[in-house]
Every structure is written in structure tokens, then in C-alpha cells.
Amino acid sequence: MEPLIKIKDLTLGYDREPVLHKVNLEIFEKDFVGVIGPNGGGKTTLLKAVLGLLAPMSGKIIFRKDINKQKKPIGYLPQVKHIDRNFPITVFEVVRSGAIMQSPADITNAEIRKRVEDLLVEMGISHIRNKAIGELSGGQMQRVFLCRALLSDPKVLILDEPDTFVDNHFEGELYEKLKQLNKEKAIILVSHDVGTISSYVKTIACVNGELHYHPDNIITQDQLNSYNCPIKLITHGEIPHTVLKHHHQHE
Ligand SMILES: Nc1ncnc2c1ncn2[C@@H]1O[C@H](COP(=O)(O)OP(=O)(O)OP(=O)(O)O)[C@@H](O)[C@H]1O
């Protein structure tokens, strides 16, 4: 089976300073990979490279032919804490922007609008369609950005900490939704919520300067120790945070 995405010996960084070294990872159809790691470990950097927003220092990312940037881009839900709430844009416009890459010949404007409307209804946020994003709660923001990520019906859905600033109710709903979506999409999920990750994802990638892949979702202390991937929970501000100590490389 050919992977949807093949990451080969990828080194990434900023201003010629590497932050991630020689990463190897393959993402297959219907994978559900949980990405964990400490603050500044390089999780978002890796996602940026997969999205084509950061050029590799070395190595490469190979996409399967049908992962086409124009027609089926990768769906991406960015970290909402990085979104400027003062930017004057409505819920509808944010979701609509998820189709910005779609070529007009393939799908009409009316079809895109219809899909936006359908997603807003499906996510239960149709009533706030004309609100400015600055007026939304954390849970509403996440719903909006999830609709945006799904607009192009992508083969691969990438979510960067979608459980930040959401209430317990929506968190449960979100993970159930992801479980449904995973029936036809590969999902890459960055989260600090190790407990939740272990009950939903199929495999785990630990990112801390390097990437270590664990081909199952069991992340008990014992298991992590045996993987040489010790992890403990600490509190970092409001958000429980994972810290990984040193790793040993394993393919
Ligand atoms: N635009 C940038 N320019 C320079 N350095 C950056 C830039 N973005 C990130 N970095 C640095 O790269 C390293 C990895 O950051 P990254 O945001 O990928 O980590 P992360 O694992 O996603 O962390 P967090 O859990 O806090 O989101 C950090 O040392 C960070 O300071």
C-alpha cells in the first residue's frame, strides 16, 4: 500500500537553525496519528512543512498522486491561540476560505456556498454564520475552524491542538466526530491531552527535536518506559502538558 504522505529524512528549522532532525514517517489511508511532545519540540513546525508552509532544510515529503494541492488539499485546523481575534472576518468567510485553493472549473461558487452552509448546520453553528470571529467562544471557534478544514473534503485532516479552550461537552463531541471522519480520512492530531489521545488515536508520534513513532496507542508510563519514551504530566498554565525526556532512536 502506497502511503498518502511519506516523510523521508526531513530536517526542519528556522534561519538555518534546525529544530527537527531527520524525521521519517509514513501516513497511510485511515491512519489516526496522535502527535505529542513538549513545548517547542517541533510539532507545529512539522505540520507547517507537511502543509508546504515551511521548506525543508534537507530531506523530502512525498505526497501520493491524489493528494493534490489544487483539488484535495490537506485539511488543516491551526492552533486557535495563534488566531488574531481582532481580524475583521465572519464565521462564514472563515469557513469559505477553506476552499481558496479549489479551482473554479472544478466546483462552482454556489456549490462551495452550499457546502459551507451544510457544514455549519452539521456542526450546529449555522446561527452564528454572520458573527465576527472575535465574538465567539473557544468551542465555537474550534467548530468554525473544523468546518473550514473539512470544506475541501480532504483525504488528510491535520489538527493542531483542537481541544484547547473547549468545554468538556464539545471535547467529547469533537473526538466522536473525528472518529467518524477517520472512517474515510487519515487524521494527524496534535494534542496535550494524553489521556484523550490514547483513547482515540491508533498510533503515537513523539516529537522532541526528533520523531519517534509508536505503532499503537498505548501510552501508559510502563509502555513509554519500555519504548524509552518516558513521559510525565505537568501543568503548564491552564493546559496539562506532556514532557518527554530523552529518546532512543527506533525505526
Ligand atoms: N517562525 C519561527 N521562527 C523562528 N523560530 C521558530 C519559529 N516558529 C517556531 N520556532 C522555534 O522552533 C521550535 C519548535 O517550535 P514549534 O512551534 O514547532 O513547537 P511545538 O512542539 O509545536 O510547541 P507547542 O507545544 O508550544 O505548540 C521552538 O524552539 C520555537 O521557538
Automatic annotation (TrEMBL):
Highest taxon, organism lineage: Bacteria
Signal peptide interval: none
Pfam families xrefs: ABC_tran (PF00005)
InterPro entries: AAA+_ATPase, ABC_transporter-like_ATP-bd, ABC_transporter-like_CS, Metal_Ion_Import_ABC, P-loop_NTPase
Keywords: ATP-binding, Nucleotide-binding, Transport
Record PROSITE patterns: ABC_TRANSPORTER_1, ABC_TRANSPORTER_2
Annotated ranges, domain ABC transporter: 5-233
GO molecular function: ATP binding; ATP hydrolysis activity
Similarity comment: Belongs to the ABC transporter superfamily.
Protein name, UniProt field: ABC transporter ATP-binding protein
